[in-house]
């Protein structure tokens, strides 16, 4: 029995110890947090007071240029293709075989140079045959003229013979009335008279129709001579010559080819009548028309295949394609370009009349399409400008030509592209250069 009481006493002690441990674990986290908060409040209360530092506004680093408005001629950059209004596609005038082609594509030729030779044999035979026909008709005409002269002479004789036959018939008739001639004599004289009258009528008809016969022969002779002349002309066309000094752009035949009238042989263009057809923007047509009205005109330059070209605007095209703004300008090549092929792409630069109070700026200075920024007490100030075209910078680079009343002499313009540029943005000028 005593042993059972001892065991029960130990069990009660163990239960009390477990309960105490659980209570300690539950109270420990709040006590730690409370101690930390108390320590933070103590340190904050005893810490020295400091003044807040002001936040400085950032400044973007930019470059700028100083401008000075002056009259500047805009440079109009255009592009087009080389062509010639004097371009001839030479075709065959007759049906014949190609005998020789002494030229090659791309070669320069002088006016009158032989380009293609066609076989002449068939045409020579036709010409000989037609010439013989003409000679035959001429002989017939000469013979007819002599016959007409003979008929006219014989007509008088025929009339005299009719008169004689009439007198003879009258004489025999009087004799017969006195029974001194028979009726058969009268009939014989009457038949002689009728024969003479028929002969006279035939001769008279021959004389009267002489002019008609001559006209018929003349018409036949004219037709024959026309055919002969056509054969002679066609014979001359078997030799195809250059119509002017120029360059061959196309050769379509070779020796041995059979060609028919109208088939293409060669194409030649005049190297002294070269033009560049360039598209003019709609906004530049007005200024260009005004320049055309001036005596000096509009000049342009270009560099193609290391060749320098000097051009002048000759005229504007008389047609504008639908859906295409602007119109084509035809620039006459004044100097250079003789060796350039037709269809060559040409980038040219035209010089327009000077624009007053203009400023040349790098393209980097432009924001949007019509806005730049000037410097004002380390702040960017937006300026709306009028774009006038392009002009070279001092270092030879391409620049844009603008104008604005706010861009006066000494104004500094930002030439650095920065993101989110806006009016009033603070900047720091790193350096400057003359535009």
TrEMBL record:
The keyword Phosphoprotein does not apply. Keywords: Coiled coil, Membrane, Transmembrane, Transmembrane helix. Residues 87-270 form the CzcB-like barrel-sandwich hybrid domain. Pfam families: BSH_CzcB. The chain crosses the membrane at residues 23-43. Residues 120-175, 207-234 form a coiled coil. Gene3D superfamilies: 2.40.30.170, 2.40.50.100, Helix hairpin bin. GO terms for cellular component: efflux pump complex. GO terms for molecular function: efflux transmembrane transporter activity. This is Biotin/lipoyl-binding protein. It comes from Alkalispirillum mobile.
């Amino acid at each position: 029995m005593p042993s059972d009481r001892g065991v029960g006493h130990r069990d009660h002690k163990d239960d009390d110890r477990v309960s105490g441990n659980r209570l300690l674990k539950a109270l420990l986290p709040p006590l730690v947090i409370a101690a930390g908060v108390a320590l933070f409040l103590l340190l904050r209360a005893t810490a020295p007071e400091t003044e807040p530092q002001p936040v400085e506004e950032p400044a973007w680093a930019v470059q700028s240029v100083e401008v000075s408005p002056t009259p500047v001629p805009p440079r109009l950059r255009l592009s087009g293709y080389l062509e010639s209004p004097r371009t001839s596609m030479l075709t065959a005038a007759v049906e014949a075989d190609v005998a020789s082609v002494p030229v090659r594509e791309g070669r320069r030729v002088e006016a009158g140079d032989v380009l293609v030779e066609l076989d002449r044999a068939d045409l020579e035979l036709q010409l000989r045959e037609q010439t013989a026909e003409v000679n035959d008709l001429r002989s017939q005409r000469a013979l007819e003229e002599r016959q007409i002269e003979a008929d006219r002479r014989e007509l008088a004789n025929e009339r005299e013979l009719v008169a004689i036959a009439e007198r003879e018939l009258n004489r025999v008739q009087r004799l017969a009335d006195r029974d001194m001639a028979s009726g058969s004599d009268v009939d014989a004289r009457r038949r002689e008279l009728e024969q003479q009258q028929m002969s006279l009528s035939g001769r008279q008809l021959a004389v009267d129709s002489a002019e008609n016969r001559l006209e018929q022969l003349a018409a036949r002779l004219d037709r024959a001579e026309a055919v002969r002349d056509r054969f002679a002309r066609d014979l001359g066309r078997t030799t195809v010559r250059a119509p002017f000094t120029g360059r061959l752009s196309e050769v379509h035949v070779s020796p041995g080819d059979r060609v028919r009238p109208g088939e293409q042989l060669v194409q030649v263009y005049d190297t002294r009548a070269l033009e560049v057809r360039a598209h003019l923007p709609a906004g530049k047509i007005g200024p260009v028309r005004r320049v055309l009205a001036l005596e000096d005109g509009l000049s342009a330059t270009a560099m193609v295949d290391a060749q320098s070209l000097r051009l002048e605007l000759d005229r504007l095209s008389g047609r504008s394609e639908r859906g295409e703004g602007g119109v084509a300008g035809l620039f006459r090549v004044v100097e250079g370009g003789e060796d350039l092929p037709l269809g060559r792409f040409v980038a040219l630069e035209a010089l327009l009349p000077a624009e007053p109070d203009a400023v040349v700026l790098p393209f980097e200075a432009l924001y949007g399409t019509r806005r730049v920024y000037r410097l004002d007490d380390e702040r960017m100030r937006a300026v709306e400008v009028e774009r006038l075209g392009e002009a070279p910078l001092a270092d030879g680079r391409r620049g844009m030509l603008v104008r604005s009343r706010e861009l006066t002499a000494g104004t500094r313009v930002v030439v650095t592209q920065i993101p989110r540029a806006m009016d009033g943005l603070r900047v720091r000028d790193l350096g400057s250069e003359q535009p």
